[in-house]
Amino acid sequence: MADPTEAQPSNGKTALTDDFRTHFSGDAPLADKAKSFAKARPWTSAAFVGIAAMAVLNMFRGRRN
């Protein structure tokens, strides 16, 4: 029987979650954590920045009637 506290190996579904834990745990400043995550996963970071930019643009666009 497997020990439930033992770390499970990453697979396609949990790899991103494992990277979040790796890069954003610890006592380092948030900027350093974000830089290390961006270096490890540049395409994912670009997608996050693009989604955030679209959200900000839509927020400033406002309602037109």
Cα Rg = 17 Å
User: What is the terminal separation in angstroms?
Assistant: 63 Å
What proportion of the residues form beta strands (DSSP E)?
under 5%
What's the helix-strand series? HHH
**Class from helix and strand fractions:** mainly alpha
Could you say which overall geometry the principal axes of the C-alpha atoms support?
A: elongated
Instruction: Report the count of strand segments.
Output: 0
Description:
With 65 residues, this protein is mostly helical. The protein has a domain at 31-64. The protein is 63% helix and 0% strand. It contains 3 helices and no strands. It has helices spanning 15-24, 30-40, 42-61. Helix 2 crosses helix 3 (42-61). The longest helix is centred in the last third of the chain and has 20 residues, at 42-61. The mean pLDDT is 77. The chain crosses the membrane at residues 43-60. Keywords: Membrane, Transmembrane, Transmembrane helix.
Structure keywords:
elongated; 3 helices; 65 residues; mainly alpha
Write the layout of secondary structure elements.
Layout: H1 15-24, H2 30-40, H3 42-61
In short:
By secondary structure, the protein is mostly helical.
